[in-house]
Design a protein that fits this description.
The strands form two sheets. Strands 2, 4, 5, 6, 9, 10 and 11 form a seven-stranded mixed sheet that branches. The chain contains no helices and eleven strands. Strand 5 and strand 6 form a beta hairpin. By secondary structure, the chain is an all-beta fold.
């Protein structure tokens, strides 16, 4: 059984940094996509970033490019903005075209202005 557990969320002022970690276990394949999604209050979930564990290629939504850095175990978030506030979910799937087969429970990130 695949399990994903996020940690590292919290409250930070605008311009600050947070590092989210994702502890993954139970995979039966050697290669897959690890993603991060977020959901702000009253808004739909949106994909933030993804990394292909085989090619190490990374993908980011435009609003976080240059500020967020994804690895196979973490999401480094710098120059945070209030609009980055939300619950962040670690996800996994066959590849970065479909990184949302498995979900963690999420961790709250709050950025104050």
């Amino acid at each position: 059984e695949v399990q994903l557990v996020e940690s590292g969320g919290g409250l930070v002022q605008a311009g600050g940094s947070l590092r989210l970690s994702c502890a993954a276990s139970g995979f039966t394949h050697d290669a897959y996509g690890i993603g991060w999604f977020r959901q702000a209050p009253g808004k739909e979930r949106e994909r933030v970033a993804c990394i292909d564990t085989e090619t190490r290629r990374t993908y980011y939504r435009d609003s976080v490019k240059g500020r967020f850095t994804i690895s196979t175990t973490s999401l480094q978030m710098d120059s945070l903005k209030p609009e980055d506030t939300g619950v962040y979910f670690c996800t996994a799937g066959g590849d970065c075209a479909h990184p949302d087969m498995y979900w963690g429970k999420g961790t709250q990130v709050t950025v104050s202005s």
